[in-house]
Write a structure and sequence with these properties.
Blueprint (H helix, E strand, L loop, with lengths): L5 H13 L1 H19 L3 H17 L1
């Protein structure tokens, strides 16, 4: 992919400012998935299952 034009850079900056909360959500989700896929132990997964169950009951 080539270099971004000034207009594209400005558009990306504007999007980032207006959608900070959504970007943070996506970042957290990506981090959680990566942890589960690559680093989690069996004990971690069991704890996460309980946390997910509790969270599902809350919402």
């Amino acid at each position: 992919m080539g270099k971004l034009t000034e207009a594209q850079k400005k558009a990306q900056d504007n999007y980032a400012k207006k959608n900070r909360e959504h970007r943070n959500y996506l970042s957290y989700r990506t981090t959680a998935r990566s942890f589960i896929r690559n680093k989690a132990t069996k004990d971690d997964l069991e704890e996460l299952k309980e946390l997910i169950k509790t969270r599902e009951e809350e919402i």
